[in-house]
């Protein structure tokens, strides 16, 4: 007699689609994880400071699942007042659903981290190419396109990519020194590669701007 309520409780979740809350919970977990991209990458950077080896897994997944479970339990009449997530894990059917959602979230999280790592590698390669150009005595690589050599004259700095800046008493040595000191100053505070663009306003002269997406 004591087992009858438990059997009825489990029978509710044996429909082909799984528990009735499954899709809502899965969708909300995925949305919360996507909206927490910046937080995830910040945790990944903190976890990776000074460490080597594979990327840490599930940095946000458990937190996302617990937060969404709390909100779902409070919003759906069928779940209001039931056990917290950790107690629900005693039910094999519900455990299977939660594990399946957890694995999907972990894959999503790893995908974001892998995309970020690819971006970092690309930035590092571009920065290395730029620094190699700065170190060379016979050429100065354009910081905007990172491909062509700059033409540096007394009153002009230009590149085939379209960079065209009026200057005063400029030399390759001065420009190289300015770029090196600016890149060095930035690298002491941030490991992300900066970007260079050419900006100009209605009443301002064209100038070279260094910015950092982080």
UniProtKB/TrEMBL annotation:
InterPro entries per record: RIP, RPA_interact_C_dom, RPA_interact_central, RPA_interact_N_dom
Keyword Signal: no
Annotated ranges, domain RPA-interacting protein C-terminal: 141-213
Location of the RPA-interacting protein N-terminal domain: 8-47
Superkingdom as given in the UniProt entry: Eukaryota
BP-aspect Gene Ontology terms: protein import into nucleus
Keyword tags: Metal-binding, Nucleus, Zinc, Zinc-finger
GO molecular function, one term: zinc ion binding
Location of the RPA-interacting protein central domain: 60-130
Location(s), subcellular: Nucleus
A cellular component term, taken from the record's GO annotations: PML body
Pfam family name, one: RPA_interact_C
Designated name of the protein: RIP protein
Organism (species): Ptilonorhynchus violaceus (Satin bowerbird)
